[in-house]
Amino acid sequence: MKVLLEKLLVNYPYVAAVILFMIGALTVLTRSNLFKKLLGINIMESAIFLMFVAGGNIRGGAAPILGEVNPKSVYINPLPSALMLTGIVVSVSVTAFALALIVRLYKSYGTTDARRISQLRDEVTER
Amino acid sequence: MLALILALSSGVVGGLIVAVMPQARSRLRNLVVLVFSVSGTIFSWQVALMVFAGENFRIVGEFGGLAWSLDPDPLGAVFGLIASTLWLFTTVYSFGYMAGKHKQRTYYTFLLISFSVTLGVAFSGNLVALYLFYELLTFATYPLVIHERSSGAVKAGAKYILYNLSGAGALLIAIVITYGWAGNLDFAGGPILANCLKNGLNWLLVLFTIGFGVKAAIMPLHRWLPAAMVAPTPVSALLHAVAVVYSGVYGILRVVYSVFGHELMAELSFSSMLPLIAAFTILVGVTIATQQDVLKRRLAYHTISQLSYILLGAFTLQPSGLTGAILHMISYSTLKVTLFFCAGIIAEQTGEIKVSKMGGVGWSLPMTMAAFGIASLGMIGMLPLNTFWSKYYLMKGSVAGGRWPLALVLIASGIINAVCFIPTVVTAFRGKSVQPNAERGGRVALMLAPTLLLAAIALSIGLWPGIVWPGVQAVVNWFF
Amino acid sequence: MIASITANLPVFVVIAPLFVAFVLPTFARRMRLVEGLVIFVETLGLVGAGYLASIVLRQKGIPIIYQLGGWPAPWGIELEAGSLGVFFLLVISGVSLPVSLFAKGNLTEEVGSKERVARFYVLYLLLGGALAGMAVTNDLFNVFVLVEVATLSCCGLVSARNHPRAAEAAFTYLIMATLGSTLVLGGIGFLYMVTGHLNMGFASQELGRIWQDYPHVVWMAVSFILVGFGVKSAIFPLHVWLPDAHSTAPSPASAILSGLAVKGYLICLLKFLYSVFGPELMQKFAVHRILALVGAVAIIAGSVLALTQEELKRRLAYSTVAQVGYIILGFGLVNTKGLTGTLFYLASHAVIKSTLFLAAGAMLAATGKKNVRELAGVGRKMPITMAAFTVGSLGLIGIPLFSGFIGKWYLLLGSLEAGNILSVAVIIAGSVLCAAYLLPVIRGAYFEPGPEEDWKDPGLPQKIALILLVAAIVILGVVPGPFLELAKRAAAELLALQ
């Protein structure tokens, strides 16, 4: 038990990632408000980003910038951070696209609630 | 070689020509149908005679890395002969029966296409080609089954497709397993599995039996056959008494003698079960038939029973049993088509489809009922008719195989057949005639002529069995 | 000259559609130019893929490797046009060329103004580029990026139809798909943490050496990737988004989504399973059993759901769920025959399902009728469309002479070799069910009397597209020769990796 707790404490970024992931997944699956669904997705993605970056981190390591006089000999792995930059860009574009869709849905149905929309679905015809 | 290609293609070509012809030109269409049926028949006779003379045809090809081959052997030639000859009769009968009915173009198109596909089943030289044509036959005959377009017909059609596709599925699995074990699917060169002694052979036989048994209407896989009687009578006569069901029977004969071989079959425990299944189907089928009041349904259940005669003969694994099976294939088909033709004439000319209401029909349709009577005697197995000989050999085969109770089954079935048909004939001649004489006019003549001719053929085979003997001998010598 | 073309082809087939996609909006008002450019670039893709295939076949399976920026493997990013990649490239270009022909001059009704059509084509080409990338990529993170590009363009294509329901379906799709790609990214993260490599070959080697030290992490990676791609490729029960998305999209988009996009994710999953985890590890973690079981359930459930659908396009969409089941089931047969079958089936379904969706779209456009029952009598009035639909249906059922049969044949051989009787039974049962949901459409179209209305076959480009696809179905079914050879070689390579 003690060992487990110690492990959890030492690896706190991962614990945080797991908690964030849970929160995000729960929000996506249980909320009917489209904005909240989108927020849930964003939280989930942040969890994964956190996990990735934490995986590349070395405690006490320095930023891997060569050429600068650096007292430490340990550098952190820059690759995960670089990858996550791409990930963030992807996530932003997903968010933008989803927001555009929400706007379109709001214009046609007058609501951003998924349940309400499915009720209204049959009443709104092709424009 | 050319004869084989022409025999196979004349149906499809004719069907496609009919399909693009204008709907209204019915005389021209009948002419085209006749020409292509005759050519298909002539060429398949030519192929069959050449096969009996010992000549070898072989066309091979490949699709998707799977080799197919067309390679008629005596068994295939016999089946091809039966199918093509009866096809010609049915075509002529159809000209009378279908005159003035709806959707004739669709009817003739698919009738001709089914002709080619059936010949394909008969002449296929390996399991891949057999499977291909067997599957295509379901689809080619489907439009004929739902010809009435009523909701009952559509339901029957759905049942037809469901049963037959499931059977084809079982068959496909069986073929895949065979391919995996033997690496070869050709019929030529002895039984495919002759040298494969494996544990699963019994199960493989079960799969094959289910696969072909659906079309051969082995109980309990027979349900589609009575349902399919909604089709026009010529279709019921030809397809559901001969062509389609025979493709199943033919498939089982192939499985027994070309896939497993009679030597390997004798060692399998399931193969001793098979005659029992056939005997069960024979007795139960004909018993149900006696209960049916609608004549076509009675004939359908009777078909189920009779098909198992052929299977019983094949399952005895004796030369005399196989002789009986092949003889019965020939004899039964002529008689059954006659019976169906009569039923069609009765229904068309008097409007009666129920046996119980046919009192007096015999007086208004004397020649029809005469043919019906002859065919009924044949179904019992009376001497002047051809089925006497086939039953004789079937019994001989059962006894030779050491299973004399099966001979008793055959005798019992003969008695139930008598119960089934004799009262029908008697009823027809009891009571006053409803209409004066309904056998007049060109339309009836077109229906009556093939009916009487077939009855005559059945009678002459019974009197001189020697005319079919060379073909039967060729098949038996091929496998034993 | 030829050598340099060959060397650069793997990257060219990916870049060309992407590049054209970005210049396309500049000619948005000149529709003919836009359509011409799209068809041109698709043709170019087909020629490129065919050329690559011929080279790979001639080299006996030695892949053409392209190093992006000239950086060698563990550091740089590799594109690998091996048998599998080339096979899938052929499928992509072989399907998307006829689909873009079908779309020619046919989109304004469903999509709207010229600008919107141009934007549709932008997304269409982006999707094509992303799929081509998935075929040749050899890098874990690139897979994620390409998957995201594909996802976004798919959602865009779904929402392209001028209808609020399209937006709704697209939103559901977007949320589900992003959920999936987040999981995939997580899985890639776990793999990277364990192996320290993003190149598939190196990651696989490293994984084979050290998986025993981190069994839990590897398990997490496997399950994240399975579920992630499971959502994206609509493996039952993760398929909930698919019927809405695929049935509300414009018809060419439905065809490409059901025919190709889903297949792209499946190919990625295949690469993860066989090129990264490897067959040995899969068997240790019993992943192949899970796959076979999930596939079997998907076949039955998808088919039964398809049976209950009245709307033709929805029926086809559910049928995709069932057919994906076949492919997943094939992934679980860890032998050459099974994998050959699954790859061939993937290609055959791509062609067949696009044919069916295009034919259904043409019927919907001509008649305005959505439901199967209302399409009675359409066979006589739209002969070419319905003939294409019939051939597609027969192919999907698995009648010999059409492509589906070959796939099923090899799947059956593979199942028997794996001793998996359940999957044998399910494959056959699926065929029968497939007949049960497709044949009524054909029966109604040909054998039932229809209303006295003037329904017509679509225009010439649409007819050509349908005929091309039908020809592909028949050719794949009768003379699959080199194509089957590629599939066999790809299967052998996937298995021999470890």
Gist?
Chain A is mostly helical. Chain A is built from five helices and no strands.
Characterization of the model:
Chain A has 127 residues and is mainly α. Chain A has one domain (2-58, 75-120): Orthogonal Bundle (Helix Hairpins), CATH 1.10.287. Chain A is built from 5 helices and no strands. Chain A has helices at 2-10, 12-30, 34-56, 78-109, 114-120. In chain A, helix 1 packs across helix 2, helix 2 (12-30) runs antiparallel to helix 3 and helix 3 (34-56) runs antiparallel to helix 4 (78-109). Chain A starts with a helix and ends in a 7-residue tail after the last helix. The model of chain A has no long low-confidence stretch (mean pLDDT 84). Chain B is mostly helical. Chain B has a domain at 331-480. In chain B, 75% of the residues lie in helices and 2% in strands. Chain B has 19 helices and 2 strands. In chain B, strand 1 (59-63) and strand 2 form a beta hairpin. Chain C has a domain at 286-498. The model of chain C has no long low-confidence stretch (mean pLDDT 88). With 498 residues, chain C is mainly α. Chain C has helices at residues 2-23, 31-58, 83-103, 108-111, 114-136, 140-159, 164-195, 200-210, 215-232, 242-248, 251-284, 287-307, 312-331, 336-367, 378-381, 383-397, 403-417, 421-447, 460-478, 481-496, and strands at residues 64-67, 78-81. Chain C has a two-stranded antiparallel ribbon. Chain C contains 20 helices and 2 strands. The two termini of chain C are 36 Å apart. At the B-C interface, helix 5 and helix 6 of B face helix 17, helix 18 and helix 19 of C.
